[in-house]
Amino acid sequence: MAMPEQREVIKRLRLYQAWKGNNIFFCGGRLIFGPDVASLFLTTILIAGPAITFCIDIILKMNKDEKQPSTILGFPVLILTLLMTIADLTFLFMTSSRDPGIVQRNTRPLDGNEAYNATTPSMEWISGRAPRLRLPRTKDVIVNGFVLKVKYCDTCMLYRPPRASHCSICNNCVKKFDHHCPWVGQCIGLRNYRFFSLFISTSTFLCIFIFIFSWLNIIDQRKHYGNSTWKSMKHEVMSLVLIVYIFIMVWFVGGLSVLHCYLMSTNQTTYENFRYRYDKKDNPHNNGYWRNFKEVFFSKIPPSEHDFRSFIDEETIEVGPYTPNIGMNITSMKEKFGIEMGNKFAVCDNMTIPSILQNLDYSSIEDNEDVKDQTDNNAFDPLGIHFSQKCHCCSPRHSASKSCGSENEASGNERAAKEAPEAVNDERTTNQRYSNMV
What we know:
Blueprint: E1 6-9, E2 24-26, E3 31-33, H1 39-64, H2 75-96, H3 112-118, E4 122-124, E5 132-134, E6 138-143, E7 146-153, E8 158-159, E9 165-167, E10 172-174, E11 179-181, E12 186-188, H4 193-220, H5 229-235, H6 237-266, H7 270-274, H8 289-297, E13 316-319, H9 333-341, H10 363-380, H11 396-437
Catalytic activity: L-cysteinyl-[protein] + hexadecanoyl-CoA = S-hexadecanoyl-L-cysteinyl-[protein] + CoA
Family: Belongs to the DHHC palmitoyltransferase family.
Pfam family, one: DHHC
């Protein structure tokens, strides 16, 4: 008995409200962050903290020595520090709050023709049911004369574009995926790599700037302590703390800046470099130093594939009992062959048979199947006679064999008639002996 289907109507939502990734949205879908967006606040404190401390030290020096202002820490240094800090935080926010280049995922698996265009798929028979196409894991694409393999993403149900990869943290495929940065709480990809590079470069310059002027301030203050550097360091505590802090931090941001400077010059991503995917001669994306830097900083950033504020059309989902493989017809081997060789559509999962397997002439194979069926019928026919064949019952040889059979049958009947009375007499004798014993 068929169970009634239930219908559930989904309300009209915006795309960001029904987003399948792990991203977090703010301002009605205008800002998109990664799931670890909380780390953005920590990064902001690590950058703004020492910069604000340095600015406070400058302001204190300016107010203390109004008559004899410091020749090192003055108003120009204060303005430059504020500008670099604001620029650094702006690049951080632009890196973290924009779409890194998320690939639009499919709503259904690829059909048979799309799979065949990638490379020949395999077909699997399960319990005599219609075939299920198994998509190949990779396909070949040509980039600047080089053959590259791109992988199929089971989550997004698509073949990834060249240089794209799936981020397990954000659960999205990202174009020109570089890495997922926990400090900015976002994937680094095609659409935000420029701002990420500016962010780490500005952070490095800001660290070096504060480090240098903190040392210069300690050296300048020696004149108040008898030209003693040690006494000057003891009194300039804020400058000393900044020197120690920035000396530690500059190894991280500075090393990261040097690494990405090399990657930009060779047009590689962090993901490609760590996997040793390309060497100097085999990188199909390397266009020379100037063109590589121009591509990062001066090329037009492609628009996002998603309008996160767009409305999703109302749709109806049919919710019913799910019992896989029940109600499907069991097909014979001949039917399987017919489905594989001739039919265009497979029954299972609305998958289509590749076009190369369609409209093939297999009439000769069907004739062989008919001959096989006739042979099988002969084997199982108890009479062994077909109406289409010539009857041999009237042939001389058959008549002779029939007469011989009749004579044998007559002699057998006479022999049985002679043996029957003897068997009756033996039975009577046995009964008499039994009665005497009783």
